[in-house]
């Protein structure tokens, strides 16, 4: 009899799903699932039922998931940091080439002459229209030096570009991985002023929304190329259209075409292919499934975006009680009070917090009565209680 049910809102690579043991079964009904796997499907308006303990985003961006609502319902949301970064990096490098050499124009032109005689001669005669520039020696600005930004910066540097990077919140791990040849700047204005190409690799947040707009574009060099493999809403489309018309922007490469940009002159639109590689899809699926299993079976949280990471170690026996709760005073005293009132000895306790939310894992040697978790649930500020037992 399976213990857990999972629901996939998007197709998830089989190599990941195969990691689910016989204790798991897939369900078509999200309402009866313990865990949800998702890629880009929007969950923002979705009703989320009590039984859902975890959502894993097989990917990086989590702007399609209502993170705060989930946290408030005790649902832990995971993503898979870095798992698709190489796939995106490779397409960004292709984007640099597409914007610099008129490859798309040239390919389309060849299709228009494919029925003509002596194509080779026509090609040599007409190719001058599609001449371009080389990226070697040009300046690239990378905004956001996370998993993808660092790979893009290093790869472009190896291709002979002078690379500037800006990330006020860069992690120690990413800083270690950044080539020492990258020029680190404190202000994005340095990037706008200096760079011939600017590539965006930040999450979509309130403070990054429409960061490329009339004002920031006015600080850029004439003919600057903007690459957006992050999210469409990072760019103000009306301001971009105006800048493309005036020549302020030479080309806008986007992996997120929308109703406005798909038809805009000067836009190179790619249908969100950054992470659409076998390797990235496999990496994301494997990481997402492992994280779900660790959480459901052991209460371990790794790579959550709305709860603290918490490694309580492998569950080895007895009972493990996990509590998702608000990060407010006096919670631990109340939890331990419930156990002591029933004369239950706690063998291990771990508590972590992140922003407004916290997570506590309590191990005991034997079993507990259902009344004990019911008591924990009634404590003000407790959002979800799970018991893991053999
Ligand atoms: N085209 C595609 O298929 C894909 C797109 N993405 C998008 O790319 C974004 C970045 O992905 P990763 O590099 O994997 O994420 P990441 O979390 O490793 O890196 C994001 C970086 O942006 C930095 N950042 C945040 N706010 C900033 C600001 N205001 N200014 C400068 N830096 C800022 C953070 O400090 C972090 O280092 C994702 O959030 C997602 O929207 C991610 C994967 C695939
Ligand atoms: O799953 C996908 O193809 C989308 C990848 C993406 O945009 C992300 O990981 O943020």
TrEMBL record:
Pathway(s) served: Amino-acid biosynthesis; L-serine biosynthesis; L-serine from 3-phospho-D-glycerate: step 1/3
Keyword annotations of the record: NAD, Oxidoreductase
Domain named ACT: residues: 320-390
One Pfam family hit: 2-Hacid_dh_C
GO molecular function, one term: NAD binding
Principal EC category: oxidoreductase
Domain of life from the UniProt record: Bacteria
Entry EC no(s): 1.1.1.399, 1.1.1.95
NAD among keywords: yes
Annotated catalysed reactions: (R)-2-hydroxyglutarate + NAD(+) = 2-oxoglutarate + NADH + H(+); (2R)-3-phosphoglycerate + NAD(+) = 3-phosphooxypyruvate + NADH + H(+)
Role this protein plays: Catalyzes the reversible oxidation of 3-phospho-D-glycerate to 3-phosphonooxypyruvate, the first step of the phosphorylated L-serine biosynthesis pathway. Also catalyzes the reversible oxidation of 2-hydroxyglutarate to 2-oxoglutarate.
Claim: NAD is one of the keywords in the record: yes
Descriptive protein name: D-3-phosphoglycerate dehydrogenase
Family: Belongs to the D-isomer specific 2-hydroxyacid dehydrogenase family.
């Amino acid at each position: 009899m399976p213990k857990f049910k999972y629901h996939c809102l998007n197709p998830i690579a089989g190599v990941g799903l195969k990691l689910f043991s016989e204790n798991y079964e897939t369900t078509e009904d999200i309402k009866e699932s313990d865990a949800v796997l998702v890629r880009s499907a929007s969950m923002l308006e979705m009703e989320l039922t009590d039984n859902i303990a975890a959502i894993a985003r097989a990917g990086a961006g989590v702007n399609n998931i209502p993170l705060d609502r989930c946290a408030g319902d005790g649902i832990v949301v995971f993503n898979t940091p870095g798992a698709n970064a190489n796939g995106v990096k490779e397409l960004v490098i292709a984007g640099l080439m597409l914007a610099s050499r008129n490859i798309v124009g040239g390919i389309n032109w060849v299709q228009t002459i494919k029925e003509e005689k002596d194509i080779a001669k026509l090609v040599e005669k007409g190719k001058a229209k599609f001449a371009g520039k080389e990226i070697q020696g040009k300046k690239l600005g990378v905004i956001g030096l996370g998993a993808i930004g660092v790979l893009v910066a290093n790869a472009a540097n190896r291709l002979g570009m002078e690379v500037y990077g800006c990330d006020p919140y860069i992690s120690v791990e990413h800083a270690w991985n950044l080539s020492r040849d990258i020029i680190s700047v404190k202000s994005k204005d340095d990037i706008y002023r200096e760079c011939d190409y600017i590539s965006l690799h930040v999450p979509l947040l309130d403070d990054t929304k429409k960061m490329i707009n009339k004002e920031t574009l006015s600080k850029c060099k004439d003919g600057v190329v903007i690459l957006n493999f992050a999210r469409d809403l990072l760019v103000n489309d009306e301001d971009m259209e105006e800048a493309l018309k005036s020549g302020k922007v030479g080309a806008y490469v986007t992996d997120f075409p929308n109703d406005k940009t798909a038809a805009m002159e000067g836009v190179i639109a790619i249908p969100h292919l950054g992470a659409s590689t076998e390797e990235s899809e496999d990496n994301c699926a494997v990481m997402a499934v492992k994280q779900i299993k660790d959480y459901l079976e052991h209460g371990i949280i790794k790579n959550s975006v709305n709860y603290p990471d918490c490694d309580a170690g492998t569950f080895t026996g007895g009972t493990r009680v996990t509590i998702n709760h608000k990060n407010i005073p006096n919670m631990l005293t109340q939890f331990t009070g419930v156990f002591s009132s029933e004369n239950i000895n706690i063998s291990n306790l771990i508590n972590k917090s992140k922003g407004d939310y916290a997570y506590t894992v309590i191990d005991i040697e034997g079993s507990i009565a259902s009344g004990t978790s019911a008591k924990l649930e009634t404590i003000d500020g407790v959002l979800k209680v799970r018991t893991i037992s053999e």
